[in-house]
Fold:
Amino acid sequence: MTALKLLCDQEDLVMIMQNYPHTASVFRDTNAALEKIAKKLKVFYVDQYKYFEKSLTQEEWNAVMTPSHINYKGHEYMAQGLTMILNNVIANLEL
Structure:
């Protein structure tokens, strides 16, 4: 991740990290590690798990989950979450 951040900086790109909105406990440690890395690297971090938790009903969330991955609708929700968060970030930037 550090090397990727350096490449982004060299190319004047903004690096964004996001976690995975899976409810399985195995993803909790991974998501926590991703957030820690994002803070350390000072990159934007999108918490898709929290977005799903706040924005989707339990029924909607369950409908996009498979035992190991989300389906196409889940990816659509992730894109919506990313777009919403990035729009908020852009709106708060000093231009």
Summary: Helices lie at 2-10, 26-41, 48-55, 58-64, 72-92.
